[in-house]
């Protein structure tokens, strides 16, 4: 995926996937359903300590699904990669 601010490629990690899932209180099956990938793919991806280790298409699908649910991925920036919920748009 591309970091929309800098244009840099953003690769999410297994730790970020696990954290995002915990924030949303989603099961691996919930992520799989939202991303339209197999649950085994999600489970395998979140076991990784670094990059997800899945195809680029599956990584993009997982990231899009979690972002659509309100997750924002934070790239490694000296303080470590992370996740947070996206701020609500002001009305």
Give the strand line-up of the largest sheet. 1-2
Work out the helicity level.
40-55%
Gross morphology = globular
Radius of gyration: 12 Å
Averaged pLDDT = 84
Span between termini: 28 Å
In total, the number of strands is 2
Q: What fraction of residues sit in β-strands?
A: 5-15%
Helix-strand makeup class:
mainly alpha
Number of helices: 4
Largest sheet: number of strands, sense, barrel closure: 2 strands, antiparallel
How do the helices and strands follow one another from N- to C-terminus?
Answer: HHHHEE
Low-confidence stretches: 1-8
Can you characterise this structure?
The chain has 91 residues and is mostly helical. Helices cover 44% and strands 9% of the residues. The protein contains four helices and two strands, in the order ααααββ. It has helices at residues 14-24, 28-35, 39-46, 56-68, and strands at residues 71-74, 82-85. A two-stranded antiparallel ribbon has the order 1-2. A hairpin with a 7-residue loop joins strand 1 and strand 2 (82-85). The protein starts with 13 loop residues before the first helix and ends in a 6-residue tail after the last strand. Mean pLDDT is 84; it is low at 1-8.
């Amino acid at each position: 995926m591309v970091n929309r601010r800098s244009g840099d490629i953003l690769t999410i990690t297994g730790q970020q996937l696990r954290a995002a899932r915990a924030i949303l209180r989603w099961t691996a099956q919930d992520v799989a359903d939202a991303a339209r990938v197999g649950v085994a793919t999600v489970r395998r991806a979140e076991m990784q300590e670094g990059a997800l280790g899945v195809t680029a298409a599956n990584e993009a699908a997982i990231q899009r699904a979690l972002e659509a649910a309100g997750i924002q991925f934070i790239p490694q920036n000296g303080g470590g990669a992370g996740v947070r919920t996206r701020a609500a748009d002001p009305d």
